[in-house]
Amino acid sequence: MTVPSSIAVRELPLFPLPEIVLFPGRPLPLHIFEFRYRMMMNTILENDGYFGVVMWDPAAKTAASVGCCAEVIEHQRLPDDRMKIWTMGQKRFRVLDYVRKKPFYVGLVEWLEDEPIIEDLSSLATDVTTVLNDVVRLSAKLMGQAIEMPDDLPDSPTDLSYWVAGNLYGVADEQQSLLEMQSSRDRLEREVEILTTTRNHLAARTVIKDTFDNS
Asked: Are residues 106 and 37 both part of a single domain?
C-alpha cells in the first residue's frame, strides 16, 4: 500500500461526504462536479495526489474529526471540467484544526495508527470470517442469487477489520465508530457482534421464507 508522508502532522485538503466512511485499503470512486471540489482536485493532482475523506453530518452541518486519507490512483476529465476519479484509502487521521474552509476545507491533521498487536488475533479473525460466510450464504438464499466470498480476503487481522468495516453498507455511523477505534481487537470484536446480529436476522427471515414456500 502506498502511504503519504510519515510526517506526524500535515495540512490536508478535506472532502466531506454524507454517509461515506473510507477505510485503509478500500477503493472509493468519485464523480467531481461542484466547482469548489473541481478546484480542490486540480490542486491535489498538481501536488502529491492525497486528500482526506471525512463523513459529513448534514443535520448538524459538521464533519467527523477522524477520517481516512485517499490517494488518487486514476482520473478522467469529462466535459465542463467534471472529473471521474478512482481513489484508494491509505492512512487514518484526526483533524486537529481547520487551516481554512473556503473555497474548500483544508485541515491540519495527525496520522493515527492502531495500538501494537501483542496477542494472536487469528482465532478472532477466523470468527469474523466464519460469521461473514454465514451472512453471505443466507443473503444469497434470500435473494435467490449466487453470491460468493472474495478469494482475496486480507490475511492481516488489522487489514481484515478494515475490509469488513468498509463493506458494512448502510450503517455509516457504525462504520465511523469502527474507523475511530484504536485497537484491531476491538474492531474485530465489534464486527463479530454486528455480523452475528445480521446473521440471526437473516436466519429468521430464511425460516419464514421456507415456511411460506413450502405451505
From this structure: yes
| Angle between helices 122-143 and 184-213 in degrees, nearest 10 | 30
* Same domain for 100 and 31: yes
Domain boundary among 112, 143, 171: 112
Q: How far apart are CA 93 and CA 112, in angstroms?
A: 5
CA torsion through residues 114, 115, 118, 119, sign: negative
List Cα–Cα distances, 157 to 44, 73, 175, 190, in angstroms: 32, 25, 17, 13
> Sign (positive/negative) of CA torsion 153, 172, 38, 112?
negative
Residue 117 maps to a domain: no
Residue finishing a domain among 112, 145, 177: 112
Q: Is 129 left (phi over 0), alpha (psi -120 to 50) or beta?
A: alpha
pLDDT in tens, 72-114: 999 999 988 899 999 999 999 999 999 999 999 999 999 999 9
Q: What is the DSSP letter of 116?
A: P
In this structure, is residue 4 part of a structural domain? no
Q: How far apart are CA 48 and CA 90, in angstroms?
A: 13
| 97 and 126 both lie in a single domain | no
- Exposed, middle or buried by CB within 10 Å (0-12, 13-18, 19+), for 2? exposed
